[in-house]
Amino acid sequence: MKQNALSHRLPSLHPKDAFTLIELLVVIAIIAILAALLLPALSTAKERAYRVACLNNQRQLGVAWEMYSSEANDQLVLNFGGPSNRSPTNSWVAGNAAFDADQATVTGAALFPYAPGIGLYRCPVDRSSVVGTSMLRLRSISLSHYMHGEDFKPNFGADPLLKSTQIRHPSNTLTFIEEAAMSIDDGVFLYSSKFDEWLNIPARRHQNGSVLAFADEHAEYWKWKGPTPSACYFNGGHVSDPLELQDLKRLQRTAPDVE
Fold it and tell me: What global pTM score does this model have?
């Protein structure tokens, strides 16, 4: 009697209580479908976060750039290249981003006391490394050569400004920009409103876009229409694609000599 009573209390271990192979396959298929739906959304959210980080970084650089000018009697921070395309130590950044792994090229240069964060100078999605090493490059961002750069007027019609009071349309005038890994070297981003070629090349990182900062300290995300330029003027590049030319014309309109 006791055994019969106990047997009625025990759960049945009938084979039908287990999952069948078909049921397991259905569950796995459902999980795969959900993952396929969720992963693009997660990827988009991650990219959006990186983009926001880049926008904040360039806003901070813009504020620092303006603070430097305010304390230097309106003089813009120096933005020169040099031998081997290395900016001098009295420029806003020093050295060559493609070849120099020394943090002093950022921390020892003129703008760092006003923007003292090494991470401000590099896009978080830039995975390019210093040539000959596995180290990530220290910098992804360059400064428009119109902002106290060298005189390129004889070659490209580009005449730099020396003081912030010379900037007539601050909200439309480019300061900082993400530069392509194939193009970045010294701290100068070279382009001309009068020369229809890429001289230096903007980055295509944020879903084929770049972050740019302007002289009024705001930053924007631009999505490019054309393909990534394969080369620039200095290594045989030529703008032939109509959409690529639209991208170049859009950038040219940020030059301070445009009416």
Answer: 0.83
